[in-house]
Design goal:
Layout (H helix, E strand, L loop, with lengths): L1 H10 L10 H8 L3 H9 L7 E2 L5 E2 L2 H15 L4 H8 L7 H40 L5 H13 L3
Antiparallel strand pairs: 1-2
């Protein structure tokens, strides 16, 4: 992940008490400022503190939480599930949510395998039906059907 390289490059020069603006957080995490605001609005991120100028100021813990959220989303976890994974955790670490994340991903994998099996079964059924529908019929039988239909007043 490209952003991880950027993050680790900058993290060595950052103190744990430093506060970041939303644009700095966006740069550090690779998450757009608009998405950060959205995550705050739906409760995925706690409301950040505000500076004297009323700008959002994020702590290192919030930056880490956002990086973790980005990684969870990268795994295909929907926001509703991500919120459940991160709920109640203030200083979230990957190790803290690993068991729940593993359970979610295992469940998702089983569901996708079931969907794949169901789709394959439908394909097999369709392949059996399609050749019957595409069988070439003789011209005589078509003509006979037309004549029979005309005679019946159809």
């Amino acid at each position: 992940m490209h952003t991880d390289a950027i993050y680790s490059k900058h993290v060595s020069s950052i103190s744990l008490t430093e506060r970041f603006t939303i644009s700095q957080v966006a740069h550090l995490t690779g998450v757009h400022a608009k998405a950060i605001r959205y995550y705050e609005s739906i409760g995925l991120l706690p409301p950040p503190s505000r500076g004297a100028n009323n700008y959002r100021r994020y702590s290192m813990a919030e930056v880490n939480r956002l990086i973790l959220l980005r990684r969870i989303r990268y795994l295909g976890v929907p926001l509703v599930e991500a919120k459940a994974l991160l709920s109640g955790a203030t200083d979230v670490s990957f190790l803290a949510i690993l068991p729940r994340l593993d359970y979610f991903l295992s469940s998702r994998l089983l569901y996708l395998q079931w969907k794949r099996s169901a789709t394959r079964a439908k394909i097999v059924t369709m392949m059996e039906v399609i050749p019957i529908a595409r069988r070439p019929s003789s011209r005589k039988s078509k003509k006979r059907l037309v004549r029979d239909g005309e005679q019946a007043g159809v």
